[in-house]
Amino acid sequence: MLHRTTAGRRRGISLLEVLAALAIFLFSLVVITQMVELGSRSGQKAQRLSKAAMLAEARLAELAAGVLPLTSTGPEPITIANDRGWQITVTCTPESWAEANLSTGTLIGLYNVEILVQWLGPSGAVEIEYVLNRILLDPTIKQPDPALPAVTGTAAPSSSSTNSGTGGRP
């Protein structure tokens, strides 16, 4: 006598079910790989954008401190720790509303400074661009120190000294 199994009871999985599971697994593997690659590229882009911001801020600090003159410079290549492809452009424009007419000439005290940092990719095209704009006071203009007392007269300075005999020269 032959025993037939009921329709609800099976002993294994069919080839069609194995192929469907394999297709779902491979499709999800491809999607996950693409997501990891996209995340990696986005991370590299964010890292380069942060580096561009730091380069622009560093150049602005050099200009504000008077280390570099407030003059426009063309695209200047920069190499940082074997990371090539960076270039920086500085544009300094005097602000006409901040001019002071003196007896010796016109004094321009404020400059609009634009710093453009670019990273050129392997193909030579611009892939990262960062622009920083600030208005800077010309660091060559000397300002009085508010902590020092104001000098009101033109009297010659006076000095006096006494030898008290303890440790001083005869």
Oligomer: single chain
For the record, the count of structural domains works out to 1
**Main sheet strand line-up:** 1-2-5-6
What is the structural class? alpha+beta
Strand percentage, roughly? Answer: 25-35%
Q: Could you name the ranges where pLDDT drops below 50 across 5 or more consecutive residues?
A: none
**General form:** rod-shaped
What is the terminal separation in angstroms? 136 Å
Q: What is the C-alpha radius of gyration, as a whole number of Å?
A: 36 Å
Largest sheet: 4 strands, antiparallel
Average pLDDT across residues? 80
Give helix and strand order, one letter per element, not per position: HEEEEEE
DSSP helix fraction? 25-40%
Total number of strands: 6
Q: What is the count of DSSP helices, taking H or I runs of 4+ residues?
A: 1
Model description:
There is one protein chain. With 170 residues, this protein is of the alpha+beta class. The protein has one domain (15-137). It is built from one helix and six strands; from the N terminus they run αββββββ. The strands form two sheets. The protein has a four-stranded antiparallel beta sheet with strand order 1-2-5-6, covered by helices on one side. Strands 3-4 form a two-stranded antiparallel ribbon. The longest helix is centred in the N-terminal third of the chain and has 51 residues, at 15-65. The radius of gyration is 36 Å and the shape is rod-shaped. The chain starts with 14 loop residues before the first helix and ends in a 33-residue tail after the last strand. The relative contact order is 0.12. The model has no long low-confidence stretch (mean pLDDT 80).
